[in-house]
Amino acid sequence: MTLAFAVMAIVPVLILGTIQVQQINKLTQEYNKTQEHATKRLADAVETYVYYYRNAVDTLATTISASGPGFRDRAGLTRKIQSVKNNLPGFSQLYVTDENGAIKALSPDAESGNAHALPVGTDLSSQEYWKKVKLTLQPAISEPMHGAEGGSAPFVAIAAPFYSESRAFEGVVIGILDMGQIARLVTQYDYGPGAYPAVLGPAGRVIYHPRSELVQSIADLSGEPAFQAAASLKEGMDKFVSGANGQKELVSFKTIDSLGWTVWVGRSYAAVQEAFFASLKSTFLLLLLTLGLTVLLGSYLAKRLNRTIHALVRYTQSLAANRYTVPSEPLSSPGAPYEMHYLASQFAQMAEQIHDNRQALLELNSDLEQRVEERTLSLQQQHATLAAILESYSDGIVLIDVNQQVVLANRRMAELFGFDGKELLSLTEEELLHRIARKMPQPDEGFARIGHKPQPVGKFTLVRSPGDERVIQLASFQVTDGGKEFGRGYVFRDMTKEHEIDSLKNDLISLASHEFKTPITSIKGSVETLLRKHAGWDEEFKQDLLEGIHEDIGRIQELIDEWLDISKIEAGALSIHPAPVRVRSVVEGAWQRLPHTLSADAQLHIDLDEELPFLYADKRRMEQIFINLFTNSIRYNESKPHIRVTAEHDGLNVRIFVKDNGIGIPEAHLPHIFDRFYRVDVSSSRRTGGTGLGLAICQGIIDAHGGSIEVRSTEGAGTTMIVSVPVYYGQTEDDNEEA
Questions:
Q1: Residues 55, 151: one domain?
Q2: Beta pairing partners, 607
Q3: How far apart are CA 689 and CA 148, in angstroms?
Q4: Does residue 545 sit in the same domain as residue 646?
Q5: Is the pLDDT of residue 403 over 50?
Q6: Residues 542 and 676 in one domain
Q7: First to last CA, the chain
Q8: How far apart are CA 697 and CA 707, in angstroms?
Q9: Residue 334's CB: how many other CB atoms inside 10 A?
Q10: Least confident piece of the model among 30-39, 149-158, 267-276, 634-643
C-alpha cells in the first residue's frame, strides 16, 4: 500500500515537472517570436518612413515638371521647397540643382544662416547619387555618407529628376534625410529587456546603432554574421557572434527589399540562457521537495487508513452485487483517524439511502423515459427552427461547442469557402481556421490562432479560385445562457462589394485631386500674372496666357464629361441616337476633334474599303470612342506615332482595327484595361496623366450600341484595338445623304 501510494504520488509530480519545463520552453519560444515580430515591425516602420520622404521628393520633382517656366525661377522653386520642408521636419536640407548639378534653389531658412546649408551655385554633380539619377532618370537613395550637404553629421540623400516642358532632363531635387530623425523613429519602440535595434544600408554601413560612435563614423558592419545572413536569407533568426559588441547574441533580422536596407534586433545569448537555466533549476528543486513531502505523508496516512479502506472496499463490492445488508460490525478500525470513522458511518447511511432510493428510482424510471422522449422531440423542433433561421442568412455562420468542435454551419458558410457541408461538421475550430487561412493570398498562421482570442473581429482577403478574390469581414460572439457558456459562433460576411465601392471612392478622390491640380495651378498662375497692376504685358504674351487658360479649362471640362459619362454608364442611363453613318466619316471626324498639340506629330493612315456597309450608330459617341483610342496611341508612344485604321465586315457587324506602333501593354494588364480608373504602371503612363476612365467609357458606349471592343497587344510591339459595330440594314438614299 505504501509503495503504491508513493508511485501514485511520483507520477503527478513528474507530469507537473514536465509541464513546467515545457511552459518555460514555450515562454522562451514566445519571447523569440516577440523579438521576430519587433524586427518586422521595425522594418515596416523604417520602410514606411523612408517611402513617405522618398514620395515627397518624387512629388516635388513632379510638381516642378508640371510647372510653367514662370514658376521655375529661384523664387518659385524656393516656395515649393519651403512648403515641403515645413511639413516634413525629417529633411535637414532640400536642394534643387540644374542639369549640370549646380544648386539653383534651397529652403529660405537654409539661405538665412544655416551653417550646414550649401550656397547657391555649389556643384553636386560629383556625388554618386546625382550621377545615378541623371543616368537612370529614376529616383535614387544614397548610402549613408558624410558630405558638405549634411554638415558634420552623417546623412542619407534622396534624389529625383524633374523635366522641362519638352520632357528633357532639367535637374534634380535632393532631400537630405536627417539620420537623427531615423534614430528617434527606431528608438520609440520597446524591443524587450536587453534587446537593441540596428539599421544598416545596402552595403552594411550603419544608419542606426545604439553605439553612437558607429553611427557617427558610418561604420562598415558588412562583415557581421547577421548582415551576411540577411543578405542570403532576407529574414530569420539565429545565434551569431557580434564583432561590434564582442559577444554571442540571439539576432532576428530582415532585409527591406524596396530599400536594400537591413534591420535587426539582438540580445545577449548568455543572458537568455542564464534566465532559462535559473528558472529550470528552481523548478526542479521545488519538484524534488514536493515529491519527498508527498511520499512521507503518503506512508503515514497509508498505515492508518489501510484496514478501514479494505473494509469499505469489501462492503462496496457487496453493494455492487446488489447484496445489501446492515454491517454487523463497524467498518472503521479502532486506530483509524476520526475522519475515517465519520466516513465509514456516513458510508453505511449512504448505502441504506441508496437501497431505499433505488426502489423509488425504479418507479420514476418509466415516467422519466416518457418525459425524456417529450423533451427530445421539443429539442428536435427547436433545432430545426434554428437551422431554418441560419440557412436563411446571407452571411456564413458556424457554431463551435466548448470542445472546439464545429456543431452547426449554414449553407452560405459552405458556399463561401468551398467546403462540403458534411465535411464542415467533422472539423475542429482550429482545423476550420487553418483551412480558411490557406485560402488567403499569403497563408497567415496567425489567423488560425484567433480562436484563442476573446472576441476576434477583422477583415481578410479570401482567394476562392484564380481571379476570384473576396473581402471577408469576421465577427464572433459567445453562446451563453444564464451565465453559462456553451461555446462561440463566427459570422463571415462577404464585404467585397462594399470594399470595391470604397476603392472606387478613394480612386475618384485621388484622381480628382491629381488631375485637377495641374490645370488649376496653371490657370491660377496665368490669372495672377495678368492681374499684376504694374506689369505691362504685350498682346501676344497675354494671348498666349489666355490660350493656355482656355486649354486648361477644356481639360477640366473633359474630365467632368468623362465622370458624367461613366456615371451614366454605371446607372444604365447612357442614351444614344443611332443613325446610318460611314466608318470613314467617324474616323476622320474623331481625328479632326483631337487637340492640334496632340496630333501635330502623329501620322494617321486610313485604309478602308469604299464598299463597307453603313454602321448603325450614334456618330458623336462613336467619334468619342476613336478620340480615346487615338489619344492612347499617341500618348503611349516613345517614337513618332503612326496609326493605321482598317476594317472588315461579316454581314452583321463591321470590325474596325486601330493599330499603332506604341509601347504596347504587358500581358498581365490586358484583362483589366477596361476597368474603371485602371492604368498600366509604366514610366510613360506616369508622365502622361489621365483618369483611367477612357477605355471604360469606350466599353460602355459600345455596349449601348450592342457591339464589342477588344485589345491585342505585345509589350514593345504596339497595340491593336478592335471595335465591332452592328451594320445598318435597309438604308435609303436619304439615309446615305444624311450620313
A1: yes
A2: 646
A3: 37
A4: no
A5: yes
A6: no
A7: 114
A8: 14
A9: 8
A10: 267-276
